[in-house]
Amino acid sequence: MLPEVSLLRSGLMAVLGAGVLLYGSSTVQAADLPELTIYTENDPPYVTVDEQGQVGGLTKPRLQRFLQSIGYSARDIKVQPWVRAYKEAMSQPNVLIYPIAKTPEREARLTYLYRLYDASVYFYRLSERTDIRVNNLASAKKYRVCAVRGDYRAEYLQSQRFGRIDLAPDSTANLKKFLAGRCDLAILTEIGIHSKLAQLNEKPERVSIAYPLLELDSNLYIAINSSSKPETIKLLKKRAAALD
């Protein structure tokens, strides 16, 4: 056998061997776990779903790392309306959901596994509404606030006893109501509102920050229902911890 052929054959066998090891590792990872259901919603820019059903968005890079570490992929994600996905995650074992922020109510039922994205939340007003003045959380309570049903920001307002919350089924409908003047304030992240404005062909100058909501942890995570078996949660947390 010629030296060049021998070297080529050796290299090919090494690549094939590495592929077998990689495949075997992924198989072991998945076999260590029960069947998991992973839910998300189509919520640009954090989660996007294209015409072929491919899931992307700002949370994708870190989510991909986490899924690979447990032997899953983006093909295993189920895209559902948030209310349905949230209900399943809060009530059924072995159900994961993302992107989701922390609240006391959620932490009572969910175990947070891995941080996917850092975000900050603000109260926004329409730029033309110069009459709106928010100096603190208490002063915001006199205004009607647009929020999304089942969203952590709506839950936060409810926990702080806001009495005038106008709930929408999703973030796009929420912003449309806000732009139409149905509410005085909207509670959104900066990147979230500007992404939605672009989606609706609206200029970013239409809105202004009324108050930064520093009191609220708005980082986004992937979480699992806490009624899942302790060994399952322990393994998922171990895999997540090894990523950072």
Summarize the structure.
Helices cover 39% and strands 23% of the residues.
Fold and architecture overview:
Helices cover 39% and strands 23% of the residues. By secondary structure, the protein is α/β, with parallel strands linked by helices. The chain has three domains: 1-31; 34-118 and 219-241, Periplasmic binding protein-like II (D-Maltodextrin-Binding Protein, domain 2); 121-212, Periplasmic binding protein-like II (D-Maltodextrin-Binding Protein, domain 2). It has a five-stranded mixed beta sheet with strand order 4-1-5-12-6, with helices on both faces. Strands 9-8-10-7-11 form a five-stranded mixed beta sheet, with helices on both faces. The chain is globular and about 60 Å long. The N and C termini lie far apart (47 Å). 34% of the residues are buried.
Fraction of helical residues: 25-40%
Count every beta strand, where a strand is a DSSP E run of 2 or more residues: 12
The named CATH superfamily of the largest domain: Periplasmic binding protein-like II
Q: Uncertain runs with pLDDT below 50, 5 residues or more?
A: 1-28
Order of helices and strands, N to C? HEEEHEHEHEEHEHEHEHEEH
Strand fraction equals 15-25%
Mean of residue pLDDT values? 88
* Lateral arrangement of strands in the main beta sheet: 4-1-5-12-6
Structural domain count: 3
Rounded to an integer in angstroms, the radius of gyration calculated over CA atoms is 22 Å
